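Researcher: I'm comparing several assemblies side by side, and this is the next one on my list. It has 408 residues spread over two chains. Same procedure as the others: predict the full complex and return the structure.
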Amino acid sequence: MARSRIHIGIWLAGVAVAAPCPASAQALQPYAVVGDAIPEPLTNTRGDATRGRALVVERSSTCILCHNGPFPEQKFQGDLAPDLSGSGSRWSEGQLRLRLVDASRLNPATIMPSYYRLDGLNRVGTPWRGRPILSAEQIEDIVAYLVTLRE
Amino acid sequence: MRFSGAIAAALLAAGVVGAAEIPQAERRSGYDFMKPDTKAMQDEDTANPGMLWVLDGEALWKRKAGGADKACADCHDDARTSMKGVAARYPAFDKTTGRPLDLEQRINSCRTNQQQATPLPFESRELLALTAFIARQSQGAPIETGADPQLAPFIAKGRELYMQRQGQLNLACANCHDDNWDKKLAGAAITQAHPTGYPLYRLEWQSLGSLQRRLRACISGIRAQAYDHGAPELVELELYLMSRARRMVMEAPGVRP
């Protein structure tokens, strides 16, 4: 019965670990939506693009479950969503920020989760309750990375 | 037209997705999405690890247990005839409780009431073995779950849960399994979620597992609160999925990546 192990990995490997999330139960930073963008950063310090890239490819951030992009080292990427390549040429920093914070404001039927939202959710599991998927700092890091994706 | 648009909008606001059901002719088992070597592993009894549980189950079928000192075979004789097609009708309506029971719960109700033995824990080797042995007697049979009209309100509840967005990721089962089954989630084929092969052997689990185990994994995958094993909501989901797969062919014990 020996055979090749086809290991695809658990699709949401972050689950069992329930890592101590930096975005612990706390109020969200207030932000202002202007048109289809959040022009002002959520934090006082600018995001860091290197950390942002690391976050995007990390499974527990969930991005590459659905998206693919310029991540040749990542074997398993999703194809439920647009390729992230060129995001920074299609969208401004503020537009990218709103798409991460709450994509459902732009498309109520979207499957893309709202990464910085607490209300309107149903039956959230205990380890994740009362905190957004990503912290304000993580959102800024990812935005800083996405704007560098020019092609 | 405008009227149905308004309904769709109202449902959206309530977090209910209005997915189109997959037409009968397009229904595909998870088996169809697998690589040839994994298919071969399911197809050949000598290669299918699930058959080890089936063999264990056959032994347990004949073993006397409990205060009544009776084996399953003492009441049901040869499973090859008495259990043929049974798993293809589960979950089924139970008159005593007035609710649907899944196959594991039915086995445990026989253990408690007929054998006077303690119920077997969910996902225990024994319960998986007996379930696999019984399910195997329906291999090749078309799924008929849901024909009993008393099940209708429970199927409706299961469907509601399937369509409901939930968890921190705010996704409904239907978002993946009705709307995106031809796509990949981080490299894994999403499939149409037809429970044709359960209990089944997953290479990732390195074990046989029940349909409830699979459902709990998808539920915590979207970071929602997983229901306990045996919870009415899980049985209703199983029931909806089985009735949604009606006329598809039973393939337990299946193999999945």
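Model: For your comparison table: Residues 1-6 of chain B have pLDDT under 50 and may be disordered.
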